[in-house]
Amino acid sequence: NAPARDVDPAALVAAAGAFAIAAILIALSLNLWRLREGLKPVFGETARTIASLQGRRGRKGGLAVPRSGDLAAHGVGAYDAATGERLSGVDLTLAMPSHVAIIGGRGSGARVLAAILAGQVAPTAGSVTYAGHDLGGFDAADRARRIAFAAGEAILVEGSLRANILYGADPAAAPDQPAFVEILRITGLDAFAYARGLLGRVDPVAAPDFARALVAARVTMRAVLRAEGAERLVEPFDPARYNHQATVGENILFGEPVGPTFAPKRLARHPYMRAVLEAEDLVRPLTEIGLAVARSTVEIFAELPNDHPLFDAFSLFPADERGYFEDLVVRQPSAVALRRGPAGQRDRERLIGLALRYSETRHRFGLIDPAFEERLVAARQSFARMLPSYLAAAVEFYDPTRINPAASVEENLLFGRVSQGEAGAEPRVRAIVRRVLTEEGLEASVYRLGLESRVEPGSAGTGSVAGEGAIPVETRIAIDLARCLIRQPDIVVVAILLDERKPAEIAARITRLRAARAGRGLVVCVPDAADLAALDPFDAVIAVENSTVVPLQPDAARMLEPA
Q: Rounded CA gap, 235 and 251, in Å?
C-alpha cells in the first residue's frame, strides 16, 4: 500500500471553494431555467399580440380618407388577440356620418366588430371598405386622424392630467375651458378632475384673484352650513380653541407643515417642538398618553395579524413597529419608570410621537379632558410666538384672513375639519362645497387645478381618485375616450364605456356622447346594463351574438330604430 500523504491545507481550501462555486453556478443555472420556462407563455402571448398589431398597420402614402361614405363589411371574419374575441360571416353597410349602436355582451364579438370598423383589426376573411375603398389601403396617419378608436386603458405619459388628455392631439386645436369640461363630463372624467382640483393647492402669487375669492367664500360656506342645519358637520379652525377633529400634534402646530421639518412622523423628534413641550411642562403628560395609547392598541389588536386591514386603519403605529411597542408596554409599567440615558430618551420620543398622532374623536380612549385641551392651546400659542425665523418657512399657520398655500382648496374653503362623529358628514359637506364653489364662480378654477395635477405613467389605483399621481383603471379608460373626442375626428368608434352600475347613468353618458357627435359619425358598443328604452333612436343598430351578427329581437328593434 502507498504511504498516506499529508493534505496541503491550501489545496483543501481551493477544492472546497471550487466546489462551492460550482454549486452556486448549478443553482443559478436551475433558477434561470425555471425563469425561462415561466416566461415562455408570456413571451409567446407577447409575440402573438405584436403579430396582431402589425396586422393593423396601414400602408404609408395610401389614399386619403373621405369625409363621408358607406362603411361596409363583406363576408368578414376576424380574431382579435387583445380581447380574445372572434367574428365570422359579417355582412353590413353603414352610411357615414351616422350614429350606430352595437349590442352584444362581453365575448360576443361586439368589440372585435368595433375594432374592424375602425380599421384596428384586419379581417382574416372578407373585406372592409369605406366609400368603396379598402379600409386598410388608406394612409395610416390620415386614417388615425379621421377614425378614432376608444378601446380600453390609455397609455399615460409623464405630465399633467391635461397633457395626458391632449396627447396625440394638435395643440393649436385644443378646446377652450368650457368645451374641455364638457368632454370631461361626457367621458366621466369630470368627477375625477374635480376631486383632484379640491385636493390641489392655491398659489396666491400665481392666482391672486382665486386666492382672494376662496377666502371670501369661507363666509358663504359657513352661512350655507348654518342655513341647512349642518354647521356641526364642520368644526372650524379657531386660534383660541382646541379642534376635536385634529390630532394633538395638529392642534399644537395649528397649520400645515411645509417640507419634512414638522412632518407628523418627525414632529416629536424635532428639537424646537421638544423645547416647546418642555417649556409648557407637557413632556411627562404626553409620554403617559403615549404609553396608554400603546397599551390600549396592543390589547385591542392582540388577536389580529399585522396585515389585517383594521390594524392599518386604526392603529397609531405601523405593523413593523408592533413588536417594539409590545416590548415597551411589558417593560415599562408607567412613564415614571422610563429608563435613563439614550435608550430611555428614545422610548420617550416614540411615546410622545404616539400622543401627538392621537385624536380623541377618532380613537376614543378617553385620554384628553377640557383642562388638558387648554394646556395644548397654550402650547400652540407658544409654538407660534417663539418660532425662530429660520423655521418660519417650515409651517404655514392657519389664518382666517388669508389663504393657506400649503392646504388644499377644500381645506381653505372649509377652514376647518369635517366632523368624524357624524354619519354621512363627508358626502353631505362635499355636496355643499361643490354648490358653494359653483355659486361663487370658482368651479372653473377647481377644474383647472385638477387638470394641472400630475400623473404617474406606471401607477394604477382602484379607487376613483387615488393619490396625487395614481390613476385608477376606469379613469385610464375614460382618458382614452377623451383623447378620441379631443381630436374631433369624422368617426369615433367606442368599443368600451365605463362600467357604470346604474342604467340611468349609462343612458345619460351615451346621450351626452351623441350630442357631442351630432352631425358626425359614431359607433358605440352599448353596455348590457343600458336601458334601451331610455336612449334616443339610433340610425342603425347591430346585434352581435355568438361571434356573428344576428337579427334584432322585435322589441329591441322598435326601441332603437329611427322614428
A: 13
